[in-house]
Amino acid sequence: MEETLFDQVGGEAFFVRLVDAFYQAVEADETLRPMYPEDLTDARRHLTLFLVQYWGGPRTYQEERGHPRLRMRHAPFRVTKTARDAWLTAMGGALESVREGLTEEQLDELTSYFTMAANQLRNV
Question: Under CATH, domain 10-121 is a member of which superfamily?
Fold first, then answer.
């Protein structure tokens, strides 16, 4: 069986670090911060569980929240070009902060996924 990206990057710990760095950027961003609840605890956990599952780790997200339905879950928010760009900047910075130990191939795979997802979630 082929090793998943989840395994290659060190499992859940990598995604916890990535999500923590991402939400630090969200907290400081005037475009993104209003789109999130005051308490980011659940948002952090949900994103971590989603990324862990997406990249080949445990399916806890699916067990707890069902199918990701990303477009449906993001539909209530105005995901404009500006919001998408701010999200990509925050995630790009988060990736840079945790990239030590990643191969260029792994970094490219993560970056490509986040770019594709952000573009698909844009709804305005």
Answer: Globins (1.10.490.10)
